[in-house]
Amino acid sequence: METKFIEQLVMTVPESLRETTLALQTEVEELLKAKSTKKFLVLEPYSRNTELCRHILRRMEKLPELPSVSCKEYRPLLMLLSLSKEVEIQNDLLHHFVEPYRKAYRTPEMLYLCEVLYHTGTPQPLYNMCNEVCDYFFVERRKQISRQYTPLTELDFQFAEKRLKPLYAAVFRMKVNRYSYRTHSVEELAGMFCMSVSTFRDKFRKIYHRPANRWLQEQRIGQIRRDLKYYYDRPLMEIAEKNGFASANRFWEFCTEQMKQSPSELHKDLYDELCKERRKFYLGE
């Protein structure tokens, strides 16, 4: 019968750590009955023992393959290591386990690390781990939105985004940037997120620190300015249609109300601005 990893730790531990490791074994075996990962936080006192953490890491590194969270005894031990405030321990954990998990598309392990980060509150020593885990799910979510293949499921994404606030904010911003090109309406944008308008407005304000309608207005004004500046040889009506205006009158009203100039005045001023910029560039000013 194969020896459990926690038993291997006890058998291979230096004598100075034997009593502590035996206590850890008892604690871990009891925790394996727990349903919540949060209960693993009771292992925090063991994480202060740098020698014990080093021993756990060395034994894990000698395993024939990366430890799988499908084997439940590794879950509390990964939590224990994550709770360490030692830079050396965190670097080893990052480079020998977290990064290999990401490269090998070990989604169950990456999802478990979301749980670890969520329950620990992501203290400063775990910032690098948090970045690595967030990047993993963000890149795959971007693939999904771009209709590229990803091995992750929608439930995987939702689980990770619910537990990691930086990941949720980054994905929210990515979706806003992609979807906002299709509409200038907060109601339509909320629909693209499958959210009620009130929920969308609330989440938008928390992430962007401004109302959604104001942000959309600013983006629209910025796009109109860019079009009038760089597409100076195009008819004004073509620029108006490109920016969602059904008539020249509506375009004129928007520009005079929101930008304090008529489209033709903006066109001239922005073209003059472009000419000055080009002149400076060519003259090396």
Which secondary structure elements does this structure contain, and how are they paired or packed?
Blueprint lengths: L4 H8 L5 H14 L12 H4 L2 H12 L12 H9 L4 H17 L3 H14 L6 H19 L8 H10 L1 H15 L6 H7 L4 H12 L3 H19 L5 H7 L5 H11 L4 H21 L2
Helix pairs in contact: 1-2, 4-6, 6-8, 7-8, 7-9, 8-10, 9-10, 11-12, 13-16
Briefly, what is this?
This is HTH araC/xylS-type domain-containing protein. This protein is mostly helical.
Can you walk through the features of this model?
The protein is mainly alpha-helical and 285 residues long. Among the domains are: 38-49 and 67-72 and 100-182, no CATH class; 215-283, no CATH class. It has 16 helices and no strands. The mean pLDDT is 94.
User: What about the largest sheet?
Assistant: none
Count of helical stretches: 16
Shape, please?
elongated
Strand content: under 5%
Order of helices and strands: HHHHHHHHHHHHHHHH
Helix content: 55-70%
Gyration radius (Cα, Å) is 27 Å
Alpha-beta classification: mainly alpha
Low-pLDDT parts are none
Distance between the amino and carboxyl termini: 78 Å
What is the average per-residue confidence, as pLDDT, rounded to a whole number? 94
Topology, number of strands: 0
Protein name: HTH araC/xylS-type domain-containing protein
InterPro entries: HTH_AraC
Domain HTH araC/xylS-type: 185-269
GO molecular function: DNA-binding transcription factor activity; sequence-specific DNA binding
